[in-house]
Amino acid sequence: MLGEFKAFIARGNVLDLAVAVIIGAAFGTIVTSFTEDLVMPLVSLFTGGIDFTGLFVVLGDVPADYAGSPTDYEALKKAGVPLFGYGKFLTALINFLIIAFVIFLMVRAANKAMAPPPAAPAEPPGPTPSEALLAEIRDELRKGRA
């Protein structure tokens, strides 16, 4: 059984999968930073300063001993207030769409790079023997009429 496990792990596709997961996780943090630090501030600029991560609806009562800001999502969440944090969901959705689009572009580029070059257009095939014979007959008939 140990030998089978070793053979399974040593197969290239398992190692490739492990590398893909590690690179994917690193790529996810890069795209998340790109979204949160570059894209979302631009979206916020065009929408009049809206910060999506701070958009939420309070669904329950705020504790009487809560001393933080009523607009601080993280502080309210830490205090145990039930919140409907749709702004964080919008940010996660935008992150996903950007990641999916970048992966689409990468796969598309890889497919183009691995595709065989387009073949030169083939010359049209010559006439079949019966077509050649019919052409000769036609030419002879034309000569006879002239």
Observed structural traits:
5 helices, 146 residues, 2 strands, Non-ribosomal Peptide Synthetase Peptidyl Carrier Protein, Chain A, two-stranded antiparallel sheet, mainly alpha, single chain
Topology:
Blueprint: H1 2-10, H2 12-46, E1 57-58, H3 73-78, E2 83-84, H4 86-114, H5 129-145
Antiparallel strand pairs: 1-2
Helix pairs in contact: 2-4
Describe the structure.
This protein has one domain: Non-ribosomal Peptide Synthetase Peptidyl Carrier Protein, Chain A. It is mostly helical. The termini are far apart. The longest helix is centred in the first third of the chain and has 35 residues. The protein is elongated, with a radius of gyration of 33 Å. A two-stranded antiparallel sheet has the order 1-2. The mean pLDDT is 82. The chain is built from five helices and two strands, in the order H-H-E-H-E-H-H.
DSSP summary, beta strand count: 2
Strand content: under 5%
Weakly predicted, low-confidence segments = none
Order of helices and strands: HHEHEHH
Specify the CATH homologous superfamily.
Answer: Large-conductance mechanosensitive channel, MscL, domain 1
* Amount of helix: 55-70%
Average pLDDT level:
82
- Give the CA-CA distance, first to last residue: 91 Å
Write a concise synopsis of the structure shown:
The chain has helices at residues 2-10, 12-46, 73-78, 86-114, 129-145, and strands spanning 57-58, 83-84. It has one domain (2-145): Large-conductance mechanosensitive channel, MscL, domain 1 (Non-ribosomal Peptide Synthetase Peptidyl Carrier Protein, Chain A), CATH 1.10.1200.120.
